[in-house]
Amino acid sequence: MGRLHQVQQFLDDRAKAKVNPHYIEVPDKPWRVVLRYNENGVDVDYDQSADFPATNERTEWRICFEPPLASSIGFWVGYRGTGLSYSKSLAKNAGRYYSFSTTGAKYGFNFRLRRFNTTDAKFSATGYKDGQVDGEPYDTAFSMPSPVWIRSVYINGYYVFNGRRYSQAAAYNQSVIQRRSAGSLLLGATWYQSSFDYSDINNYFFMIIGHDIHRMKVHQANIGIGYGYNWVPARGLVINAMAMPTVSVYNRVKIYKYNFNYYLSPQEPVDDYGEYNTQTRTWANGKSRKPITMIKEQDLYYWDGGSETTYSALRLNLDLRIGIAYNWKKYFIGIQGQYNNFTYKKDQSKVNIFDAYARTSFGVRL
Questions:
Q1: What span, in angstroms and rounded, lies between the C-alpha atoms of 325 and 305?
Q2: N or C: which end of the chain has fewer CB within 10 A?
Q3: Residues 231 and 182 sit within 8 Å (Cβ to Cβ)
Q4: What is the C-alpha R_g of the chain?
Q5: So what's the pLDDT on residue 35?
């Protein structure tokens, strides 16, 4: 026990030496047990468009997927800014969600993983003729024939320039207490990867109108400079706001396609296609594809169309956070929220993912 006490004393002394005690208080009790309630939400917007130069027409549509909020309750146990957590989901059909975080005087690290599938969707479409809206826009809720799978991994680290006076942890995990108002520039780096998969052939209609794409994967590295501020209006109370725009320094998008014997066409031609030959992959009139407006599911054929990978940069994303904490004696409560927006695009396909969470916590120092 003597050596363990020496190790703890060494860590405590280092934690206190890295901050200005007039601005940041490092509690004498290093251990914390925290009860947490979390709400995690994801909204995915999948945009597509198609141009028809022969008729000077254009169609734009969007499919929105929004699974139920991933509500969970659990606890966190740790020493100073690092610890372990466990939570149990309270919502059904919300997918799986995992998270981990650790903080120090000048750094922070966050990890989030969300995976879910859904058939609930909203569909909207607008047609254009000669550059003008053609007809009434269409908007409806519907159920996908087969589930869409969406997976996202978010890893974020940040560096605090004014770590002696400003603490991000004071508002988000209460490992320290902010005594006076202060702010700081923050340098952040984010790794984000996600996949959007609706490759079950029952979803063929959405694949065909979506340029034969049935799956998209993205790997994205971002860096940014932001600013955080802790306002201390009363003893023990801190209110934090942080904003950090980021730009991609690595953006890799890989798409997977099927080849179909049908395609998207705005015209209603005469059905002179005849029978489909699976050996030559052509219709009797010699054409390889038939307009989807004339589809007969028993004549639908598809095969692997391979994959395409593109690289780009200068994709702008956003990280917004807000946190409130109140400390009294050895107890504390906190409310935190975080919002992230990620986008990726391939030709006429674009995916927007809005990822956010809100958390309420109550803890005790030991």
A1: 53
A2: N
A3: no
A4: 26
A5: 95
Q: Where are the alpha helices (DSSP H) in 175-315?
A: 204-209
> Is 0.90 topped by the overall pTM?
no
- Residues 166 and 147 sit within 8 Å (Cβ to Cβ): no
pLDDT (average), residues 62-73: 85
- Structure confidence at residue 56 (pLDDT): 85
Q: Is the dihedral of CA 286, 289, 295, 301 positive or negative?
A: positive
Measured distance CA(56)–CA(131) in Å, rounded: 8
Residue 22 CB coordination number (10 Å):
11
Q: Are 253 and 346 in contact (CB under 8 A)?
A: yes
139-148, 152-161, 284-293, 345-354, range with the lowest pLDDT:
345-354
pLDDT tens across 326-339, in order? Answer: 999 999 999 999 88
Let me know: does 220 contact 342? Beta carbons within 8 Å. yes
* C-alpha span between 194 and 44 (Å, rounded): 11
Give how far Cα 188 sits from Cα of 89, 245, 357, Å.
Answer: 30, 9, 19
Task: Classify 153 as helix, strand or coil.
Answer: strand
Let me know: does 69 contact 41? Beta carbons within 8 Å: yes
Characterize 204-240 residue by residue with b for buried, 16 or more Cβ atoms within 10 angstroms of its Cβ, and e for exposed.
bebbbbbbbbbbbbbbbbbebebebebbbeeeeebbb
Question: Minimal CA–CA distance to 121: which of 184, 62, 196?
Answer: 62
